[in-house]
Amino acid sequence: MATASSTEGGDLLDRLRAAGVVRLGIAGEIPFGFIDTNGELTGEAPELAKVIFKRLGVDRVQPVPTEFGSLIPGLNSQQFDVVAAGMYVNPERCEQVIFSDPDYQMLDSFIVRKGNPKGLRSYKDVVGKKAKFATGTGYAEIQYAVEAGYKESDILIVPDQVAGLNAVEAGRVDVFAGTALTVREVVKKSAKAEATEPFKPIVGGKPHVDGGAFAFRPTETKLRDAFNVELRKLKKSGELFRILKPFGFTEAEMTDLTAKELCGG
After folding, report:
1. Is the pTM value of this prediction over 0.90?
2. Ramachandran angles phi, psi of 42, nearest 5°
3. Residues 6+ apart with CB under 8 A from 163
4. What keywords would UniProt list here (predicted)?
5. pLDDT by residue (tens digit) across 218-228?
6. Contact of 84 with 68, CB cutoff 8 Å
7. N or C: which end of the chain has fewer CB within 10 A?
8. Around 92, how many Cα atoms within 13 Å sit in the side-chain half-sphere?
9. Backbone torsions φ then ψ of 233, nearest 5 degrees
10. Is residue 4's pLDDT more than 50?
11. In the chain, what's the furthest Cα-to-Cα distance?
12. Where would I find the H helices in the chain?
């Protein structure tokens, strides 16, 4: 009998269809994948997963909440079937999992005090003006700041964008870096802080755009490919934007980037 690993492309899709349910790894991050106040699973990735898996013949999705740093190990140790957390595709992660093509692209943005008194619009500005800098636990923005010349040990690491906003409002830091989307949403109710215009961080000397996608175990190419086919249809019809819009995504975050480009190949 052939095992899953020797079956070309894996047999997970067949097994999910038979079971009628797919387990989604989520990291409790708004707006990407989280459990809302009514105890319901939502977020851009789970809502998209519900639509795509239904089209693939899998009617139910079941959340498996975990820490962001445990998503890839949890996937590879079979705790869930797919990562549905809006995870950025990067070369390091591409060595451990396979990704669908991105369902969104994302630029960075800063939370600064109203009027942006220090004129901070890029990581280079932060370094040049010796600004006090904060970002979130495990965020890609840590690396972007370091690449611009900011000393990693000088970065204030806070749990999330709400803590980042508080730090800027209280004057503990001059700037908090996050994704354009999370920053845009969190400053809406603030009287003291604002979001800067979204910008591309510089990576390896070139302007860089991030893309978030679903992650699968490396053996499950058949499921990943079937997922991509449905994703492409949703992009083409405009349905993808309708699914993501309620979570604060704009047309600017729609993308034709591929996982291959972001994996560096």
Report:
1. no
2. -150, -170
3. 136
4. Signal
5. 999 999 999 99
6. no
7. N
8. 5
9. -65, -40
10. no
11. 68
12. 12-19, 44-55, 71-76, 91-94, 123-128, 141-147, 161-169, 180-186, 221-237, 239-244, 259-263
Q: Which two tokens stand for residue 151?
A: 């000393």
Tokens of 128: 């040049």
Residue 137, CB-side half-sphere exposure with 13 Å CA sphere: 10
Residue type present at position 180: A
- Residue 7 pLDDT: 62
- Residue at 224: amino acid letter: R
pLDDT digits (tens, 9 = 90+) for 46-96: 999 999 999 999 999 999 999 988 999 999 999 999 999 999 999 999 999
Task: Give the whole-angstrom CA distance, residue 206 versus residue 230.
Answer: 32
How far is CA 21 from each of CA 41, 45, 61, 227, 260, rounded to the nearest angstrom?
14, 16, 5, 15, 28
- In the chain, the amino acid numbered 139 is Y
Going from the C-alpha of 46 to that of each of 41, 85, 262, 263, the distances in angstroms are 7, 8, 22, 23
